[in-house]
Design brief:
The protein is an alpha+beta fold and 338 residues long. The chain has 3 domains: 4-116, Rossmann fold (3-Layer(aba) Sandwich), CATH 3.40.50; 145-211, Dna Ligase, domain 1, CATH 3.30.1490; 217-337, ATP-grasp fold, B domain (D-amino Acid Aminotransferase, Chain A, domain 1, 2-Layer Sandwich), CATH 3.30.470.20. It is built from 10 helices and 19 strands. The strands form 5 sheets. Strands 14, 15, 16, 17, 18 and 19 form a 6-stranded antiparallel sheet that branches. Helix 1 packs across helix 9 (314-324). The longest helix has 21 residues, at 90-110. It is globular and about 65 Å long.
């Protein structure tokens, strides 16, 4: 029987639940755990004997996991530890949460099992968008002309050079929580003439500006090990999704399997590997004249809707990766492999 697989993610993560079901069907014991539940609803502990032997455990209300015996850990979308609700003082809560985060992070980094998509330190580096663009360019991907700046004059010059046909997007997270607790999002947006009136505010924080690239379709390319799952998102058929497919209505946006050229397939695998990852979700644009343009790589990118819309066996490939460290031939036959 396959061993324990620890999945670190937020609660009610449908992607993690889907893979957990597939893993259980293969005889593994998946354990889904959100570090946000530590320490209020979980115990993490490490003990070290005089002989240097270590014992590390995770105990929750439903599982007792020997961390020394794990087959793999999947850093899917873990939250940060949250102090016990009985601690109400803000300073005390901040201290407790920092202590919990420091110990939990140290513990995850000590594990000697397979790590998907990469150890935490590698993940942090792999998520840097400017570094991704630099690497993609070196690997031969075509890029949209891009400016990252907090200089309003440079931004306005970029806007003028492209006759106003530019978009902006966040440098780090697309999501934020306001002081009233409401979540807000900022996705890729076209720059309007009204926005230009507020360009001076750019001096407060960097912004990513890119030339608008005309699209035949948008591509979500999911790389699992060396298997490549490419899907077309026909975002241009939906006005809400023309600039960012994440605004689309799934029921009215067509999805199809896409066959990438061999050189693009090879670059997709190479950029994921060069970032130190064994999984990555790439966003590309296929232009009306047939060019493939790189946008970014997400080490925790969503894929379940692609699997359901196209039948591509991404979940099974992730199971292979967690259990065996590579995608098996019978799974890989359904996709491109570099």
């Amino acid at each position: 029987m396959a061993g324990d697989i620890l999945v670190l993610t937020v609660e009610r993560d449908t992607h993690a639940e889907h893979v957990a079901g597939l893993l259980a069907g293969r005889g593994a014991r998946p354990v889904l755990f959100d570090p946000a539940g530590y320490p209020a609803r979980a115990v993490l502990e490490a003990a070290y004997g005089r002989d240097g032997r270590a014992r590390r455990r995770l105990r929750t209300g439903s599982a007792d996991v020997d961390l020394e015996e794990l087959t793999a850990v999947w850093f899917r979308r873990p939250g940060a530890p949250i102090a016990h609700p009985e601690i109400t003082d803000a300073a005390a809560r901040g201290y407790v949460e920092q202590e919990c985060l420091a110990f939990a992070a140290d513990l995850w980094d000590q594990l000697g099992c397979r790590i998907v998509p990469a150890p935490r330190g590698v993940l942090r580096l792999a998520q840097r968008k400017s570094s991704q663009l630099a690497l993609a360019g070196r690997l031969g991907f075509e890029l949209p002309e891009t400016l990252i700046t907090n200089d309003p004059d440079e931004f306005l010059g970029f806007y003028d050079r492209h006759d106003g046909r530019i978009i902006t997007k966040p440098f780090d997270s697309a999501w934020a929580t306001r002081a009233d607790g409401e979540e807000t999002s900022r996705l890729a947006e076209p720059v309007t003439t009204r926005d230009i009136g507020y360009a001076d505010a750019i001096r407060f924080a960097p912004v990513i500006a890119q030339e608008y690239v005309a699209k035949r379709v948008e591509l979500r390319v999911t790389v699992v090990g060396r298997a490549v799952f490419a899907a077309e998102i026909h975002s241009q058929e939906n006005n809400h999704a023309r600039f960012d497919w994440r605004r689309y209505d799934l029921g009215s946006t067509r999805h199809e399997v896409h066959r990438l050229p061999d050189d693009v397939t090879r670059r997709c695998v190479e950029i994921v590997e060069r970032l130190g990852l064994c999984y990555g979700a790439l966003d590309l644009i296929l232009t009306p004249d047939g060019r493939y343009v790189f946008l970014e790589v997400n080490p925790s990118g969503q894929w379940l809707w692609i699997e359901r819309a196209t039948g591509l066996p991404i979940g099974e490939a992730l199971c292979d990766l967690l259990l065996y460290g590579e995608v098996r031939a019978e799974t890989g036959r359904a996709v491109r492999c570099a």
